[in-house]
Q: What sequence folds into this?
């Protein structure tokens, strides 16, 4: 097994003490090490937000882009070099609000990308506004009289989109989370890995105690290929919240459909510079 320290970055961490993001960072390092990957084999892509800072604290290839625009960059990178292990990373605001449209179409295309979404049900970086997953009635900086909008159920949306791998983990269940991240990365196709991650500064309702009382692991007999049952589980929220692999679908990946797997990465191809110049000249 690879040494977890090879993924350690020396950059100072700006998260609040006690933030659930620390657990996600450690779980991801363990998962990458146990998969025996090397830093140069991994590309982390993120947008903006507290969750999106995670790639800064990981030693690997990194692209930090715009708010909600994580998946287009990850898509381009995977198409250009399908040999890279591409992991997109962001929060519930970044990914489900600003990035909601990209989220839907990334699942439809089914590129071999893993998407880690840190769900703390709040905007953490911009000081506690309501996010798409904020519970109804919750008082925040933008909903002083309580959130009047019903929360989004991203996992149900993913199953409706026939996403090839849909899972939810909880940061306090470390080894379970490590195992889920490994399964998400191993899956061939788009993998949604949502992680319950309490915000200790701006969400005083959905705390570690709150999640711990409700999160339960799916039983070993659960069939993740049963789409109807998975859709029911994805909408289960409140007194009980399921964690584990909720849905899996066998689909051809974008790489297989576009015959990318049989072609070398763009950087390794012998390009005809004359033809390239002729194409560029047509635009002048």
A:
């Amino acid at each position: 097994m690879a040494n977890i320290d090879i993924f350690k970055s020396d950059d100072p961490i700006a998260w609040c003490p006690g933030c659930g993001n620390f657990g996600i960072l450690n779980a991801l390092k363990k998962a990458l090490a146990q998969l025996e990957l090397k830093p140069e084999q991994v590309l982390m892509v993120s947008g903006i937000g507290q969750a999106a800072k995670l790639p800064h604290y990981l030693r690997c290839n990194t692209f930090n882009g715009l708010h909600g625009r994580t998946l287009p960059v990850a898509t381009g990178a995977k198409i250009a070099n399908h040999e890279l292990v591409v992991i997109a990373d962001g929060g519930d605001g970044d990914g489900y609000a600003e990035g909601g449209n990209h989220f839907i179409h990334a699942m439809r295309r089914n590129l071999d990308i893993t998407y880690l979404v840190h769900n703390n049900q709040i905007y953490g970086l911009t000081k506690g506004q309501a996010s798409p997953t904020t519970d109804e009635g919750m008082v925040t900086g933008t909903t002083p009289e309580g959130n009047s909008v019903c929360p989004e159920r991203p996992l149900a949306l993913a199953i409706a989109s026939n996403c090839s791998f849909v899972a939810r983990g909880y940061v306090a269940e470390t080894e379970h989370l490590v195992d889920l991240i490994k399964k998400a990365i191993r899956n061939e196709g788009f993998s949604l890995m949502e992680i319950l991650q309490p915000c200790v500064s701006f969400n005083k309702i959905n705390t570690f105690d709150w999640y711990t009382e409700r999160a339960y692991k799916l039983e070993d007999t659960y069939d993740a290929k049963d789409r109807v049952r998975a859709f029911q589980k994805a909408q289960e929220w409140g007194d009980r919240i399921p964690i584990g692999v909720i849905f899996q679908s066998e689909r051809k990946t974008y790489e297989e459909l576009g015959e990318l797997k049989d072609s070398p990465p763009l950087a390794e191809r012998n390009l005809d510079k004359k033809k390239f110049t002729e194409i560029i000249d047509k635009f002048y």
